[in-house]
Fold this protein.
Amino acid sequence: MAHTDKSNWELIKNGMFSENTIFRMAISLCPSIAVTNSLKNGFSMGIAVIFVQTMVNLTVSLIRNFINPKIRIPIFMLVIAGYVSIIDMSMAAWARPVYKQIGLYIQLIVAFASIFARAEVFAVKNRVVPSIADGLGMGIGFFLAMIVISFFRELLGKGSLWGMPIVSGNPLLIMILPAGGFFAVGILMGFFNWMDARIAARKTAAETT
Amino acid sequence: MSTDAKTHPLVVSVSPHVRGGESIAKIMWTVNFALLPAFIMSVYYFGPRAVYVTALCILTAVFSEHIFQKALDRKVTSTDGSAFLTGLLLGMNLPPAVPFYIPIVGSFVAIVITKTLFGGLGYNIFNPALIGRAFLLITWPKLMTKWAMPTAHFIEMDAKTTATPLGILKEEGLAKLIEHFGDKASLYKSLLFGSTAGSLGETSAIALLIGAAILLYKKYITWHTPLSFLGTVALIAWIFGGKGALFTGDPVIHLLSGGLILGAFFMATDYVTCPTVRKGQIIFGIGCGAITMLIRLKGGFPEGVMFAILLMNCFAPLIDRGVKPKQFGAVKKEAKK
């Protein structure tokens, strides 16, 4: 059992930036393309994932000493499925219009690689508080990615934000179609990589002088 | 090399020892030159607007390639004619009446997303000009299918719009299309010379064939891709193009209309995105033709050349792998018993 030696704040930052689910790990890309055609949908999906990721990490970390390693995967599945059911039913009850559009993808959170991966590589090996911090960081990282992607897609594809018209004229229809999702994720990922490379280059330049 | 020859009479170097005078720039500018007849015809039929749209495409293409190669610290090759060619081809694929932001956006997508971000000339998977057009067609479907009437008076064209021959063929059938042009002979004549509605550079079959002849004569393209492409289209049009009975279709209309000739000679033959082995090029051409006719006869769009070439671009590496010629001296693998 290798406990992490990072502080809770470092864990949250880690999930948000250096191990960002979408832009760094490039996993769980399916929802990032499917539900990000409007800011509202992306926002709701992000909130759902923050909830599930944090609660799964909390639960798995709590019961980590009782899990037989041989059957850990079905146990993770059960825990994830439980929380996904909670968020699924809550959204169906309280956020009807959004649920109608992205309900299927809320249920598909069960199969998210990112949530499963954090339970497997982090929560099952660490104490409760760092696990919560890790889950929160990963969830917020996913949430931020969804916000950024859906912001650009809705603005360019519909000329609106959160349903409110911002620019008139002929919007780029392709951006709210699936093809535009690939464009948006690819270009943003490239942009963040480019930023990283520049920051790293500046750091090494500062160290050598 | 020349300084070497002066100081050392015997030069030792790695092969190849015999070099042709060809270079990327020379080939690209020749292809640009080969498109000149079609461009002249487009100006003749669609007026100054054709010049504006094409010029905007070319300027944006060359300019954005220059900027992005600078920004990415690559060798700046914006003057080798390839970006110019992409812009020119995209311009020839646009309807005459598009608003001026369309060529700019399309050219930018073609050069930056399809070419530069994939690594520059030689690394792009898809034909840049066609991706630019596909992007525009999906983004602004209404503006990209507004076809202006050709005027042939070299004046600013009026707002009159009409359907393309393929559009009429799809919506109303062959009888209506022939009626539209008077009789069959004048329909063929219009298609041959280009006085029909359509994208800027695709309407005049004769002008495009002149350009294609230049390229074939200079051996910059071979007959394999275009001929198998056109042959497949003609065959399928003849077999399945007719109403009701098989073998009653009119292959000539399908051959001369739409972007087929422009696509077959100038875009399907793009060195980067088509197979390099001759046998593979024939398979590539047959695939392009089959998909084109599938879309024309059964699909939602009246024209399918663009999607056909793009879809076959994906398969180009796979085709190359499948038809790889046997290496000289290779030992045949023994079959497992």
Residues 22 and 29 of chain A are 6 Å apart (CA to CA). The longest strand of chain A covers residues 160-161. Chain A has a mean pLDDT of 88. Chain A has eight helices and two strands.
